[in-house]
Amino acid sequence: MSDEQFEDFLTRNVRDYNAAPAETPRDAMWENIAAARTARRIVSPVAPDIQPIGPQRPTRRLAPWIGMAATLLLGVGIGRVAFNGSSDVPQIASAPSVPTSNTPTPNTPTPENAAPLTTSDGPVATDELPAASTSSPAATRVRSRLPAATRAEPNSTPMSIASRDHLQRAEALVSVVAATPADAVMDSLTGKWAREMLTNTRLLLDSPAGDDPVRRRLLEDLETVLVQLVQRSGAVTEEREILDRTLKRTQLLTRLRTGAAGI
Amino acid sequence: MTDAQLIADILRGDAIAERKLYDAHVDRIYRLAWRMSGDETLARDFTQDTFIRAFDRLADFRGDSSLATWLHSIGTSVILNGLKKVKRIHGREIGGDELPEVTITKREAEPDLKLRLQRAIDGLPDGYRTVFVMHDVEGYTHEEIANALGIQPGTSKAQLHRARARLRDELADFAGEWAV
Q1: ipTM (interface predicted TM)
Q2: How far off is chain B from A32, nearest CA to CA, in Å?
């Protein structure tokens, strides 16, 4: 038999060798890829397009992000150990006692003061966000409206610090998004910010912070909004209406302020 | 949209561009992973790992080759390393030495010939099998194979020739049938 005959035979028959199914499970694999990449961002939540300029050491740009992630992870870790099985998880049950129909506080960031968040100078430095700090007027006002029994000083456990920090950052993000014109295209940095917040929100949901039913509901609503934000990242915003509806329905901004102040 | 535009969009954090890149290349990578592993779970794992690594390293892509070539070089590396790990874990080689002995006393019917052919391909050394599967089964060119595996096109041709010769030896008992 000649080589040609054998090659013809191979051509006819090797097509069946380990033949893959006609349908590629694209969506299933994509979900896993997205999940794996999100998990990696917990360890190194740095935007891929952030490159060190000139001789600047990369660690300078990474440091705030690593610090934030480490704080959150440390908080979650210590929280898991400290509150595992215990019933005295810090409660923010006071949150529902605050009328949810409150008008937004005057310190809601405007597009003008939110603008520096999305400059191309580098990563969104959440330390510089116009978030309500623990001693902000909004936080003080909310705390003063709480019943005396629940008006305790802010809890200083790592878990609470991590939760409060996260809710404050979420408040800043939601404020910026709410203040952005409805027909604006969401920039990629805001998308990245939302993605990172989403990861940390899920992490908190799995931590003792998620055991509290009120806080859990708050985090779940926040998760919904963040998912919507991530989905419309980089796209023109047909989904903006859905996002606005969710924000309105869940009164998320008000509850975030209340939640952060109540921890 | 060119590769460069797509990459620039992805590096800016555009999730839609990420999905576009994935959709454009996933079928070919998945098929190759399936052909090489013969296992759905492994094929999925290898494909996913290929894209995770590709997205992680996209900033390092210099454009010396096409994006497809670059992706396939990652893909083949992931697949071959993954198969080596699987072999180590299972503590067995897929090589011909350890294949169950198939004694052929007479010419078999065609289904048996196909089965024998599949086993013979499975029994090829990794290098031969990779080139054979990519070229004869999946239709890659020698240039594509060379770029993906980091070898010379001449090496690819030589390995294909040796792979075919070995298969021909393995199937010598069926010499009368493949001419049909």
Answers
A1: 0.81
A2: 7
Q: State pLDDT tens for residues A135-180.
A: 444 444 444 444 444 444 455 677 777 888 888 888 888 887 777 7
Question: Would you say the C-alpha torsion B39, B45, B48, B51 has a positive or negative sign?
Answer: negative
* A36/B179 Cβ within 8 A: no
Alpha-helical runs (H) found in A55-151:
58-83, 111-114, 137-145
Sign of the CA dihedral with A38 first, then A40, A44, and A47 last = negative
A232 conformational bin, left if phi > 0, alpha if psi -120 to 50, beta if neither = alpha
pTM above 0.80, yes or no: no
Taking the CA of residue A196 and the nearest CA in chain B, the distance in Å comes to 12
Q: Is B140 in CB contact (< 8 Å) with chain A? A: no
Q: Which of these, B98, B36, B72, lies nearest to B150 by C-alpha position?
A: B72
CB atoms within 10 A of CB B6: 18
Point out the residue among B36, B56, B114 whose CB comes nearest to the CB of A16.
B114
Q: Rounded CA gap, A201 and A219, in Å?
A: 6
Q: Which of A1, A12, A23, A33 should be substituted to probe chain B, the one whose Cβ sees the most B Cβ atoms within 10 Å? A: A33
Q: Confidence class of residue B150 from pLDDT cuts 50, 70 and 90?
A: very high
Residues B179 and A1: beta-carbon distance below 8 Å: yes
Tally of CB atoms within 10 A around A98 = 20
- For A206-252, write each residue's pLDDT tens digit: 887 778 888 888 888 888 888 877 776 655 445 667 777 777 777 78
Q: A4, A10, A26, A193: which to substitute to probe chain B, counting the most B Cβ within 10 Å?
A: A10
Question: Which one-letter amino acid corresponds to residue A83?
Answer: F
CA atoms A173, A176, A182, A185: torsion sign: negative
Q: Which residue of A has its CA nearest to B55?
A: A37
